[in-house]
Amino acid sequence: MNPIFNQIVSGLCWVVYGSFFEWYFHKFWMHYPRVPEEAFRGHTIVHHGLYKGDDSYFVPEGEHPEHILLKRYALPAIVLVHLPILMLVEKYVAAHTAIGGTIAMTLYFVIYEYMHWNMHVPRGHFVERFQWFQFLRDHHHLHHRYFQKNFCVLFPLADLVCGTLETKGSLQRRKLEREQAIAKGEPHTPTRNNSRGSKIRKRTQVVAVESASPISRSFEKFESRRKKKQAQNQDKWKHEREQFVLTNKRNIGK
Ligand SMILES: [Zn+2]
Ligand SMILES: [Zn+2]
């Protein structure tokens, strides 16, 4: 097989992987306070605290833009973490794939940063003319309004596959369904695009019904302890976020 062809195919596979990686990292590290908490603090507290799903989403050029980009060490860290996988694939799965993979990963990251920046800082840049860019900007704007939707910034394939895709169209459709149900006087059950989520809910309901066994009881205890701790943490983070926004507003006002 032609080595260049291998590198190109590998690059394309890593772009697809990139969509799932940004979805996973964004959902489970940037929106949950895991160790190290820097990803959560920088994203949920600072980024979402400053730029919400309203007009504050758009930032004038030069106004505290340092909170849009990721930390400087993010790209080297991502490449380093994936280096063993690239090497193993090169050695045992398909030769001539590591360079294509590394280039694709680096380009994905750089374009991600460039696009995220332009989504928040409109400045008439050439990229803003394209419809696909406007779609992605709306897609990310909706994420700033609905934290648990649209985790992908650059390539929303993983949102589509994992059932977290929200568009202006899907919002409009649900609004219409709601209005029609109200007009007919029927109770309205919203259509969910997350079938996996509803399966999990159904499973949890089954656990609740069959809660007589000791295992179920200890699971319930564990769950109530976990929920209590989560609620305490949420209060802590909420307070920190409010404090951050207040201090920042004060600084900008000076
Ligand atoms: Zn953003
Ligand atoms: Zn987010």
Account of the 3D structure:
This protein has 254 residues and is an all-alpha fold. The protein folds into 2 domains: 160 residues, no CATH class; 60 residues, no CATH class. It is 70% helix and 0% strand. The protein has 9 helices and no strands. The longest helix has 40 residues. It is globular, with a radius of gyration of 22 Å. It binds zinc ion (2 copies). One zinc ion (ZN) binds next to helix 1 and helix 2.
Keywords:
254 residues; mainly alpha; 2 domains; 9 helices; binds zinc ion
Topology summary:
Blueprint (H helix, E strand, L loop, with lengths): L2 H28 L7 H13 L23 H20 L4 H23 L10 H15 L11 H6 L5 H17 L10 H15 L4 H40 L1
Helix pairs in contact: 1-4, 2-9, 3-4, 4-5
Question: Helix coverage percent of residues?
Answer: 55-70%
Summarize the helix and strand pattern as letters: HHHHHHHHH
Q: What separation lies between the terminal Cα atoms? A: 63 Å
The residue-averaged pLDDT reads 83
- Overall shape: it is globular
Number of domains: 2
Radius of gyration: 22 Å
Strand fraction equals under 5%
Structural class designation: mainly alpha
**Count of alpha and pi helical runs:** 9
Catalogue the ligands.
zinc ion
> How many strand units?
0
Question: Runs with pLDDT <50, length 5+?
Answer: 200-215
User: Main beta sheet, described?
Assistant: none
How do you describe this structure in short?
The chain has 254 residues and is mostly helical.
